[in-house]
Amino acid sequence: MVELTVEIPTYNERDNLPILVNKLQNLGLDLEIVIIDDNSPDRTYEVADDLSHQYSNVKVIKRPAKMGLASAIADGLKVADGKYVAIMDADLQHPPETLIKMLNEAKSGNDIIIASRYISEGSSGKFSFFRKIVSKGATFLAHAILRETRNVKDPMSGYFIFRKDILDGKKIESKGYKVLLEVLVKGGPDRKVSEVPYVFGERYLGQSKLTMGENLKFIGLLLLLSEFRPLKFIVVGLTGILVNEGLLFALHTFTPLSLLYAGIISIESSILSNFLLNHLWTFKGRSVGTLFRGVSRYNLIALPGGIINLLTLLKLAEVTHYLIANIVGIMLAFAVNYIGSEMIVWGRRKGIQPDKRN
Ligand code: GDD
Ligand code: MN
User: Fold this and answer.
1) What's the 247 CA to ligand 2 centre distance in angstroms?
2) Is-contact 35 23, C-beta < 8 A?
3) How far apart are CA 174 and CA 55, in angstroms?
């Protein structure tokens, strides 16, 4: 068993690969290197084969066609002998020297060590403005929906180390680029995470394979890793509309209550039934503290949602049909309520340690 397996997925990286492998060999670490190439048109696998003849600690996996970064990482994991596994780009955007610091963090008891652009001394380098926005937006969404990532400043990083056994018995299901998210979520709640700063370098040669399609896969991954909570939340919301409308109809028809009081009772009843269903289903197994604390917080986040719904309705009704304006308002309110639920009502991070650097 070696200390560290470095996984390098490659697609058209023939000029970068030997430079990176030589640098890794010179770090003075007890490591092996696993190159996973997807039959690159530029024949990267030939270069990889040469390297494996030159160095006894280099393994090569050749796959028949481009099957994606995440599955390359999953396949590499199957042959990894290291106690720890590092994932890095082949294109020298991830400085190899950072591995030394990362491995030290691992040895001092951390389970997942992330090379981070978003802590002090780290930087995303010469990212285009657009890519910076996408990266920050994705980070916000991950923090909102996956609380296991909330104490991590750069959960989108493609450069990280983890102790291999934290994934024992678990499968990597990601399709896109964001395998770290999956490692954070599936690694279990008790894992210790640490971040080490790095500057995302400029691509040495060749070009990025990160496309819009990859960004869309990210949304799919968020749904999968969140066990489809956003969709469940929508379903519960729809039942709430039924409760609200049904009760309003009943109270208005069969009782002498004024519309105001019937309305208040109907709205509050739907808030309560939504809370209960979300507690038992959407956020099953997650703590709200005492039930009273949960219900009152849920009411609190329903309030700004309702106000946003109303304001949107009033504003948009000036330019479009009021029912369409209301639907837009409902969708905005949904987003606010959902994120409030994830972060505030069911957001308690029991067993997840606070960020050490703050
Ligand atoms: N085997 C294999 N199969 N390798 C692939 C594939 C694939 O389908 N797609 C990409 N790769 C390899 C590339 O050759 C490179 O070594 C590495 O995966 C990352 O691809 P890049 O194209 O260099 O990605 P990037 O630099 O735009 O994105 C990086 O930074 C992101 C942070 O914003 C990656 O590290 C991402 O994982 C990271 O999220
Ligand atoms: Mn890259």
Assistant:
1) 56
2) no
3) 31
CA distances in angstroms from 187 to 69, 112, 157, 302, 341, listed in the order given: 19, 9, 16, 33, 23
Q: What is the pLDDT of residue 189?
A: 75
Ligand 1 atom with least separation from CA of 93: 26
Please name which of 72, 54, 53 lies closest in space to residue 63, comparing C-alpha atoms. Answer: 72
User: Which comes out higher in pLDDT, residue 128 or 292?
Assistant: 292
Domains along the chain with CATH numbers: 4-225 (3.90.550.10), 229-345 (no CATH)
Give the number of other CB atoms < 10 A from CB of residue 236: 20
pTM score > 0.85 for this model? yes
How far apart are the CA of 200 and the centre of ligand 2, in A?
9
Spacing, Cα 89 to ligand 1 middle (Å) = 6
Reported as a single tens digit per residue, the pLDDT across 50-85 is 999 999 999 999 999 999 999 999 999 999 999 999
CA–CA separation, 267 and 256 (whole Å): 18
Nearest ligand 1 atom to alpha carbon 135: 33
The per-residue pLDDT for range 8-17, each reduced to its tens digit, is 999 999 999 9
CB of 68 within 6 A of ligand 1: the answer is yes
pLDDT band at 134 (very low <50, low <70, confident <90, very high): confident
Q: Locate tokens 């590499």: which residue?
A: 76
pLDDT average, residue stretch 86-100:
96
Q: Whose CA is nearest to atom 39 of ligand 1?
A: 158
Distances (CA, A) of 235 to 207, 238, 241: 42, 5, 10
DSSP-H helix ranges across the chain: 17-25, 44-54, 69-79, 98-107, 129-145, 179-186, 212-225, 229-254, 259-277, 291-316, 322-340
**Residue 351: exposure state from Cβ atoms within 10 A (0-12, 13-18, ≥19):** exposed
The pair of structure tokens assigned to 119 is 């802590």
The strand pair at 112-116 and 84-87 is best described as: unpaired
Q: pLDDT over 90 for what percent of the chain?
A: 72
